[in-house]
């Protein structure tokens, strides 16, 4: 099956999506403070990697990288509510790009699959 | 069969082989991750040969022009040479050092060999004792001389040496050019916003003239900010430039001082936001003090400029020497 990444138009489309997504994140009072003082270009590159991954594009996802990359934020209080906010902003971004709700749910599920890595937790037992 | 040159390595490429695969085969440690053009971690720069267009997908126009490409996407159809390390420095001699403002001097240099650069890029000045500092080029490539604007810092080892000790005829070494803050041909009708703080004006003076002579027709706003009006150097030159180009607006902005007809008083971010509240579709150039550049970058992005349309060059100052 064609991935959402390909359906949206690959790398160029993801770049446009990152602009929308990053703006949403920076105007989201729940999470904006986590981005104070970061190098915006590097952050945008990371978000591009994230959006590529959650839309099923080519990636080399490493849970270890995700843990290391967010450990300093967990120390500052990053928790489930913030991950929820990011996934919400991600959904809004895709909605703006005309992506259907079932696809958005699939992306959210993929994003949720990295939640434990982001928050530095042991994976929960599968029910 | 095409050959890939990488320093002392000359690799014959197998049919359909990517530059990344060929270099990894030769045990060159090229960083890489997705191997499909998304992560850009295998970005390299070509210094000779022809690049397939598909090897530059997703890169900024300024990076494409400088020969950057993604090794994982690059299947050369002709010989290609990849840049390894820095180019060696070259000699230049001092033509003049003259004041532009109270704490800013203009250094004019004539390089031994004409420097191939884009207006807005920077060079690194090397002193014989190893001291090195980077300065933006305010000149245009066809000028005989390179022009640098140097802010003289109270404890600036390089800047004080330039302002106090350098004499016409002295020799210095320069390395470069470097940097991706320059005008690239694209949509000539696109609106441009250029904001420079202090000597951040230097690259912008080059970029704005480069854009104009390349036939840019869209509206151009050039903003210069300083603490006081006295720091707004080159004002007459820029007024003349604006007068002779209908699409160019020159805006002066000082943090303190008395407002005047063509002078805005206030923080540069606030003045920029009031002049151009919406930046969707704009190409933006930001140069100067890092705090201002980072604040402006965020603000311009939030006001609608696309991330890859914002070119920023933050002038990082070396820490003062320990007492």
Attribute tags:
heterodimer; A: 127 residues; mainly alpha; Globin-like; 7 helices; 0% strand; globular; B: 323 residues; alpha/beta; Ubiquitin-like (UB roll); Elongation Factor Tu (Ef-tu), domain 3; Rossmann fold; 3 domains; 6-stranded antiparallel sheet; 6-stranded parallel sheet; 31% strand
Question: Would you write up a description of this structure?
Answer:
The complex is a heterodimer of chains A (127) and B (323). With 127 residues, chain A is mainly alpha-helical. Chain A has one domain: Orthogonal Bundle (Globin-like). Chain A is 65% helix and 0% strand. Chain A contains seven helices and no strands. Chain A has helices spanning 4-8, 10-26, 40-54, 63-75, 80-96, 101-112, 115-118. The longest helix of chain A has 17 residues, at 10-26. Chain B is of the alpha/beta class and 323 residues long. Chain B has three domains: 3-82, Ubiquitin-like (UB roll), CATH 3.10.20; 90-178, Beta Barrel (Elongation Factor Tu (Ef-tu), domain 3), CATH 2.40.30.10; 192-314, Nucleotide-binding domain of ferredoxin-NADP reductase (FNR) module (Rossmann fold). Chain B has helices at 19-25, 61-65, 157-164, 201-213, 235-243, 268-275, 290-302, and strands at 3-6, 9-12, 43-49, 68-70, 80-82, 90-101, 104-111, 122-126, 132-136, 146-151, 171-178, 192-197, 220-226, 248-254, 263-265, 283-288, 310-314. A six-stranded antiparallel beta sheet of chain B has the order 9-8-11-6-7-10. Chain B has a six-stranded parallel beta sheet with strand order 15-14-13-12-16-17, with helices on both faces. A five-stranded mixed beta sheet of chain B has the order 2-1-5-3-4. In chain B, helix 4 links the parallel strand 12 and strand 13. Chain B starts with a strand and ends in a 9-residue tail after the last strand. Classes of the chains: A mainly alpha (127), B alpha/beta (323). The A-B interface holds A 11-12, 14-16, 18-19, 22-23, 26-27, 40-41, 44-45, 48-49, 52, 57-60 and B 33-40, 57-58, 294, 297-298, 301-302, 306-308.
């Amino acid at each position: 099956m064609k991935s959402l990444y390909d359906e949206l138009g690959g790398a160029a489309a993801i770049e446009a999506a990152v602009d929308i997504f990053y703006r949403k994140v920076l105007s989201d009072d729940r999470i904006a403070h986590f981005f104070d003082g970061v190098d915006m270009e590097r952050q945008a590159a990371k978000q591009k990697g994230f959006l590529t991954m959650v839309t099923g594009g080519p990636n080399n996802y490493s849970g270890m990288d995700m843990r290391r990359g967010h450990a300093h934020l967990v120390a500052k209080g990053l928790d489930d509510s913030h991950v929820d906010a990011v996934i919400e902003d991600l959904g809004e971004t895709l909605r703006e790009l005309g992506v259907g709700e079932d696809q958005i749910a699939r992306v959210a599920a993929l994003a949720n699959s990295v939640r434990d890595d982001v928050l530095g937790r042991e994976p929960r037992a599968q029910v | 069969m095409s050959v890939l040159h990488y320093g002392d390595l000359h690799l014959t490429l197998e049919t359909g082989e990517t530059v990344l695969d060929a270099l990894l085969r030769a045990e060159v440690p090229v960083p890489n991750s997705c191997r499909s053009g998304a992560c850009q971690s295998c970005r390299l720069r070509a210094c000779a040969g022809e690049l397939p267009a598909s090897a530059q997908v997703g890169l900024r126009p300024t990076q494409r022009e400088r020969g950057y490409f993604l090794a994982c996407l690059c299947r050369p159809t002709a010989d290609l040479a990849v840049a390894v390390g820095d180019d060696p420095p070259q000699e230049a001699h001092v033509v003049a050092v003259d004041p532009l403002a109270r704490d800013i001097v203009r250094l004019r240099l004539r390089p031994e060999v004409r420097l191939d650069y884009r207006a807005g890029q920077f060079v690194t000045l090397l002193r014989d004792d190893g001291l090195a500092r980077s300065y933006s080029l305010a000149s245009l490539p066809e000028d005989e001389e390179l022009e640098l604007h140097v802010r003289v810092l109270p404890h600036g080892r390089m800047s004080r040496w330039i302002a106090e000790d350098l004499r016409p005829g002295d020799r210095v070494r320069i390395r470069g050019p470097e940097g991706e803050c320059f005008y690239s041909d694209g949509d000539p009708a696109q609106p441009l916003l250029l904001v420079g703080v202090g000597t951040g004006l230097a690259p912008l003076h080059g970029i704005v003239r480069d854009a104009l002579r390349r036939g840019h027709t869209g509206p151009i706003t050039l903003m210069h900010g300083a603490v006081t009006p006295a720091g707004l150097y080159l004002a007459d030159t820029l007024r003349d430039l604006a007068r002779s180009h209908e699409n160019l607006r020159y805006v002066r902005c000082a943090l303190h001082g008395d407002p005047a007809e063509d002078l805005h008083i206030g923080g540069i971010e606030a003045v920029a936001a009031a002049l151009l509240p919406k930046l969707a579709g704009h190409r933006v150039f930001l140069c100067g003090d890092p705090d201002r550049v980072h604040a402006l970058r965020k603000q311009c992005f939030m006001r609608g400029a696309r991330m890859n349309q914002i070119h920023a060059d933050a002038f990082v100052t070396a820490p003062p020497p320990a007492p």
